[in-house]
Specification:
binds magnesium ion, binds adenosine-5'-diphosphate, 7-stranded parallel sheet, 751 residues, disordered N terminus, alpha/beta, nucleotide-binding, hydrolase, Rossmann fold
């Protein structure tokens, strides 16, 4: 590998900028000179443009640009010993108080002198309230005069002011000083250039060192744009190279070919399918059939609209592998889903799943379930069935990943609802095969192309966009929680559906009233607090007090008292129930004994009860768009149309209501996934592997940089195909080794 070239910028910060600064910086992330150079300003201020002070939020750590309006002078405190200095700063309209305390007047006089009225500068501190006005107590500040004296640069007056994510321990301008120390150290730092020269030329990109100089010390907004363009390309290119390498390394591993066999279990299965496959299912099926027949590991992502019938597609691939003498493992994210897969797959297979049993078909195999909650005996049996090869299909949860699970001949790994599993888990399961097994990953929701190219960049993608014919569809209505008559109508509506033989889900964000919202199992509730923590405050509405969120236990109790639902049994479902209780609740719901199910989002993924026609989502604004779409996908699966009632307390005009309305406005999963993406932060999308300290993605936005990602991907694949070890691009190899976090690096080094 890069060996001796590694770590040109790995000088510990304590050596470069002194221990005290280094310690404060380390708390923010950077530990080495290289990491500091990658710690980019979050924004740029403009000396001529003062920060809007009217919208600062209490308790927020802020950095503002403002002008001193009044200086009250140092005076002794009336009731206590010591002295106080009050200074007022302004943006021209709103004001902010600065308060300094001292034991004696002496130390405060420096502040009094520096903060003359009319002086502008940057001020940083935590906003507090005192007698009705906002203030910063003991703010750290730097006047522009101080800064200019220090760097003797009069022309700096027009330069954008870099504003770094800062903390109480180290102010933004001290970070700027530290960066300048590293950038300007005796000689310019030896920054690696991971972008091939030809790529830079094609895209008119500045070099690695100039880009860092421009991003940290721009003289104009054009400088910032040039730096950002280059750095985004760099991030995209480095990541795409890692993915391309991963992909090519995987393809270099031999895999057992599992060609289709005429007259085998798959053919028998096709013959007994109660419906005809959609054109899309057939098309994807053909692709999978071909890839499984090759002696190279298939690496495919199957994404599809909710309800598009991915399970059948996966099952047919599994049966092809069984026909070729191998086994298939199906990994599901929850017990509920694993159980359901077992039920549907056994039902679809019928006698084909009864090998060795009376009435079992000749080509038959066995299907085994392996989850964490199995009893000891059942578990032993399941382990034996997997290890002996008796079970052609093993369905399970995380328990499948545990060490003592062994397969006789694992030929295919299918991962359902990939968004809940990381790369490490994918690999853990694949490691259970002797060679490299084929891999089919399925996503619960459609994912935007950019995400497919970043998060799943090492996989080939297939898409099922068509729904099986005969689906009546779902109508979605937004119901304001503030209107009791509407809510009453919701319960009546459930009654009507139940009377007509239907089932209704009632989804709540929480299990019980006492439990914290985050505790809700499986609910990745959207965190919609603006993250202005250490930014220059940009304003924003104060968060309104929220009414308590709907909880499963309360709502179930309420519905049991509800007149409109008299005589209707109401079930409950959530992650804290025992496996038996979950099974019982699901069975009672599916069978119609308890046709109303109050649940958390455990039913979000994949649960399939065709009779379900109504879904009420309480506090709908608390869920992300993709999640809402997933939930809604649980209804309208049969011949009867579904109705989804999204109940919300969100105010008209708020972002939350916009989200719910967007959800009600379309059933196009791809559109919703894109909207969802726009509202999430990148870290949520790319997962921990790319969001940590060694993160390689800082400026790249998967929402906006589609073109950059696509260009970088094409170029990276081409490069890796030509030069897999990157011998012609040693700097790129070095950056890859450095910038990927340890876990990922470890992974890449396995090849
Ligand atoms: P998803 O893609 O969301 O995982 P499923 O695989 O659960 O969807 O399929 C949803 C439902 O559609 C299941 O009940 C399945 O049996 C049914 N189904 C699948 N393919 C077809 C088809 N070609 N025609 C009719 N129904 C189908
Ligand atoms: Mg599914």
């Amino acid at each position: 590998m890069a060996g001796d070239r590694r770590g040109r910028l790995s000088t510990p910060l304590s050596k470069a900028v002194g221990p005290k600064t280094a310690e404060a910086l380390e708390k923010l992330g950077p530990r080495t000179t290289g990491e500091l150079l990658r710690y980019y300003p979050r924004r740029y201020g403009d000396r001529g443009k003062l920060t809007d002070l009217a919208h600062l939020r209490l308790d927020e750590h802020v950095t503002v640009i403002a002008r001193v309006a009044k200086n009250g002078g140092v005076r002794p405190m009336r009731n206590r010993n010591g002295a106080i200095l009050n200074v007022t700063i302004t943006d021209g309209r709103a004001e902010l108080q600065l308060t300094f305390f001292g034991k004696r007047t002496g130390p405060l006089q420096g502040h009094e002198k520096r903060l003359r009225p009319g002086t502008t500068g940057m001020f940083t501190g935590t906003v507090s309230a005192y007698r009705g006005s906002r203030q910063l107590t003991h703010p750290d500040y730097e006047t522009f005069e101080d800064l200019d004296d220090e760097f003797e640069a009069v022309q700096k007056i027009d330069w954008p002011v870099p504003i770094y994510p800062a903390s109480a321990a180290i102010a933004s301008w001290r970070i700027a000083t530290a960066v300048r120390t590293v950038l300007g150290a005796q000689q310019a730092p030896d920054v690696p250039e991971p972008l091939p020269a030809a790529y830079r030329e094609t895209h008119h990109l500045v070099g690695a060192l100039p880009a860092l100089q421009l991003v940290h010390e721009p003289h104009s907004t054009t400088d910032i744009a040039r730096a950002h363009l280059r750095l985004r390309h760099e991030e995209a290119f480095v990541l795409q190279t890692a993915l391309a390498q991963r992909r090519s390394a995987m393809l270099a591993q031999p895999a057992t070919a599992r060609p289709a066999r005429a007259g085998g279990i798959r053919d028998a299965f096709d013959a007994r399918l109660p419906f005809t496959l959609t054109a899309g299912q057939r098309e994807v099926g053909d692709v999978l059939e071909d890839e499984l027949a090759r002696p190279l590991p298939m690496q495919r992502l199957l994404q599809g609209e909710v309800g598009s019938g991915k399970t059948v597609v996966a099952l047919r691939a599994m049966l092809q592998v069984v026909d070729a003498g191998g086994q298939a493992a199906l990994l599901a994210p929850t017990e509920v889903l694993a159980q359901q897969h077992l039920r549907t797959i056994t039902a679809l297979l019928g006698p084909l799943a009864e090998a060795g049993m009376l009435g079992g078909a000749e080509e038959a195999t066995r299907v085994t379930l392996l989850t964490g909650s199995l009893g000891a005996t059942a578990r032993r049996k399941a382990l034996a069935a997997a290890a002996s090869g008796e079970a052609g299909i093993v369905i399970g949860t995380h328990a499948l990943l545990s060490e003592n699970v062994q397969f006789a001949d694992l030929g295919l790994v299918v991962i359902d609802e990939q968004h809940r599993f990381g790369v490490e888990q994918r690999d853990a399961l694949r490691a259970k095969a002797d060679g490299t097994p084929h891999l089919l990953v399925m996503t619960a929701t459609p994912i935007p192309r950019t995400v497919a190219m970043t998060s799943f960049g090492d996989l080939e993608t297939s898409t099922l966009s068509e729904l099986p014919a005969g689906r009546a569809g779902v109508e979605t209505v937004v119901v304001p929680a503030s209107k009791p008559a509407w809510i009453q109508r919701v319960w009546q509506r459930i009654r009507e559906e139940v009377d007509a033989g239907g089932r209704a889900y009632v989804v709540c964000p929480r299990i019980s009233a006492t439990e914290a919202e985050q505790g809700t199992e499986d609910a990745d509730l959207l965190d919609d607090l603006p993250d202005t923590g250490d930014l220059v405050a940009t304003g924003g509405e104060p968060a309104p007090a929220r009414p308590a969120l709907a909880a499963v236990e309360d709502v179930a109790a309420l519905l049991r008292q509800e007149r409109a639902l008299e005589g209707v049994t109401v079930g409950e479902m959530h992650g804290r129930l025992s496996t038996e209780a979950k099974d019982a609740a699901m069975a009672a719901f599916a069978g119609g004994a308890a046709p109303v199910l109050v649940s958390t989002t455990v039913i979000e993924v994949g649960v399939d009860v065709p009779e379900a026609t109504v879904m009420v989502i309480l506090d709908a604004d608390r869920f992300g768009l993709s999640q809402l779409h997933q939930l809604r996908g649980r209804i309208g699966r049969g011949a009867k149309p579904g109705v989804c009632l999204a109940v919300t307390t969100a105010e008209p005009g708020s972002r939350a209501i916009e989200r719910v309305e967007a959800f009600a406005g379309t059933t196009d999963g791809f559109r919703l996934a894109e909207l969802d993406l726009e509202q999430r932060r990148e870290g949520d999308i790319l997962g921990a592997a790319q969001a940590g300290r060694g993160s390689s993605l800082r400026l790249l936005r998967v929402t906006k940089d589609l073109d950059i990602i696509a260009d970088a991907r094409a170029a990276a694949r081409e490069l890796v195909a030509r030069d897999p070890a990157l011998t012609t691009e040693p700097d790129l190899a070095e950056v890859l080794a450095e910038s990927l976090d340890e876990e990922t690096a470890e992974y890449l080094q396995r090849f």
